[in-house]
Design brief:
A hairpin with a 4-residue loop joins β1 and β2. This protein has a 14-stranded mixed beta sheet, with helices on one face. With about 290 residues, the protein is α+β, with helices and mostly antiparallel strands.
Length: about 290
């Protein structure tokens, strides 16, 4: 065999390895027709009416070997004017000093979150709207107002989340495509148990989204950030999100369990409002 004949197969193997750069070892390329059919099923599933229920459950977070457990209540409603993050009589608490960005993207919903430790021990209350947030810490008698950024809740509560609150809310309601903000995949690979892995890039990072045979997302990973596994209930809505991320040499863990869903109509209209007591100190997140 000549050197030319010897090197041609090696070149072919190298190209194949480059194409499969995002795949687990030994994964093969999926037929385009099969991958496209499942992707279209994923789009169709994600476009169904969202289940914006009142969610309650538990949340475990922190360093992998030192997580702590809290309970949460999460609900939302369509945004209505005026904004719930306007002053609305909060001047004594200093909310007029917080710089809310009027040009922030419209996320379509106002989200309320309550976090508790133990029976009746409220750790935090928060409202999220249009990329802004108001966080009240009753025990510290403090509140924080301003732009919601990926590290805001982690910095204030030690709470690492894989996505912004509006996207997490959408994902838990079944709006998977918009929550994960997935563009058209660049390539498709075979995963285990009949799953298909869709690889794409966004903002210079490599992403993987793994869909099972029902076109449900069962794994989502962001290069250098999160790896998130998902499990579902009998209605094919999320019941468990289990993720890890590397941060400053420490592996962080988050396990979110949805234990109960009930109709948002079970809450009074005033449930979306979050008042700050006049005695609380309020700090701007934008300074």
């Amino acid at each position: 065999m000549t050197k030319t004949k010897f090197f041609l197969p090696l070149i072919g193997l190298a190209l194949a390895a480059a194409l499969c750069g995002c795949s687990p070892k030994g994964a093969s390329i999926v037929p385009e027709s099969e991958a496209d059919t499942r992707w279209q099923a994923f789009i169709h599933r994600s476009s169904r009416p969202a289940a914006y229920d009142v969610l309650s459950g538990s949340l475990r977070f922190g360093p992998t070997n030192d997580t702590r457990r809290v309970t949460y209540l999460l609900w939302s409603s369509a945004i209505e004017a005026p904004s719930l993050l306007d002053d609305q009589g909060h001047e004594p608490a200093g909310l007029d000093d917080a710089d809310f960005d009027a040009k922030a993207p419209d996320n379509a919903r106002t989200i309320r979150l309550e976090v508790n430790a133990g029976v009746g021990a409220n750790i935090a209350k928060a409202v999220f709207e249009n990329g802004q947030m108001l966080l009240v810490l009753p025990k510290d008698q403090k509140a924080y107002a301003g732009a919601e950024t990926p590290d805001t809740l982690r910095r204030l509560l030690g709470l690492p989340l894989p996505m912004r609150m509006n996207r997490l809310n959408d994902f838990l309601a079944g709006r998977y495509l918009s929550a994960l903000d997935v563009p058209a995949p660049e390539r498709y690979l075979t995963g285990g148990n009949g799953n298909i892995i869709y690889c794409y890039k966004s903002n210079g990072r490599n992403y993987e989204l793994e869909l099972d045979p029902k076109a449900l997302p069962v794994r989502w990973s962001v290069e250098g950030r999160w790896s998130l596994n998902m499990a579902y209930d009998e209605k094919e809505l999320p019941r468990r999100l289990d993720g890890t991320m590397e941060s400053d040499g420490t592996e962080m863990r988050m396990v979110l369990l949805v234990k109960e869903r009930r109709s948002a109509g079970s809450l009074p209209e005033t449930s979306m409002r979050l008042d700050v007591p006049a005695s609380f100190a309020v700090y701007s997140l934008d300074q």
